[in-house]
């Protein structure tokens, strides 16, 4: 096992995994390291093993065209970079991105892996944290609009569905956004187990979504919830869109790097955000010889390695 591997982070990011499951993870990582010819198990081997056990192995023979890869990369980068920007500028308590991959695995064509927060952060989520998470879910569609204009695609549909569900819960279940008076629903402890069969309508209503025993007295409640959910999503989407527009160069650079390398880490996203501050002109990116490379990152890592070796040799001399 390489000394740079932090096993505690994997235990935290994989809640519910037993000791036997974690042992299986290390065994799978060892097999990956052997296939790649590594002398020890590296962090990349463990990441690959996590993906194999959670999502599935790499799909061979299924490759998206360039346009499809661009759309998937833009959506995933938009979600990840929104979380990094919110953490950097608004001190948001949201998950930061660990890595992005556009390599097809299992039933997915791309994926974003986030670092999980501590358990207490999920037990006592507050309104700002939930609104920031809503912005993260809207980051994929906002990134598409920044790069492609109104010519958006279905690549961000899953994120939009999660955003709609979260906004609806903020308004109804948690009652955090401009608290609204809801009449007629029995308290949860008085609900009875009742099988109502499959829903026959497409979207369902508030009555069916939350397993209420009796219809609410306020028959306009569904319309009011839908209207306020739409308003909340529009407000958060506008904030996310303006945030990504200020970092257009960093967004485009990250997309190009991801298309070139197929995978990118969260540390590299932070490095790009530092190298391309807000309002950076796009012409600086287009003037680069290869916009999809990270030569400056490699050069800085080489300098840090040389400095570490130099300081180590000086210490041995003394």
Strand content: under 5%
Poorly predicted segments: 183-208
CATH class of the largest domain: Mainly Alpha
Order of the strands making up the biggest sheet: 2-1-3
For the termini, the CA-CA separation is 31 Å
Keywords:
Peptidase_M41-like; metalloprotease; Helicase, Ruva Protein, domain 3; AAA_lid_3; 318 residues; 3 domains; Probable inactive ATP-dependent zinc metalloprotease FTSHI 1, chloroplastic; hydrolase; single chain; mainly alpha; 3 strands
Structural description of this entry:
The chain starts with 6 loop residues before the first helix and ends with a helix. It folds into three domains: 54 residues, Helicase, Ruva Protein, domain 3 (Orthogonal Bundle); 183 residues, Methane Monooxygenase Hydroxylase, Chain G, domain 1; 35 residues, no CATH class. The longest helix has 26 residues. It is mainly alpha-helical and 318 residues long. The protein has 13 helices and three strands, in the order ααααββααααααβααα. 58% of the residues lie in helices and 4% in strands. α7 crosses α9. The radius of gyration is 23 Å and the shape is globular. A three-stranded antiparallel sheet has the order 2-1-3. About 8% of the residues have low confidence.
Strand and helix layout:
Layout: H1 7-13, H2 19-36, H3 43-54, H4 66-89, E1 97-101, E2 111-114, H5 119-123, H6 127-148, H7 157-171, H8 206-209, H9 221-246, H10 248-261, E3 263-265, H11 266-275, H12 282-286, H13 295-317
Antiparallel strand pairs: 1-2, 1-3
Helix pairs in contact: 2-3, 4-6, 4-10, 4-11, 6-7, 6-9, 7-9, 10-11
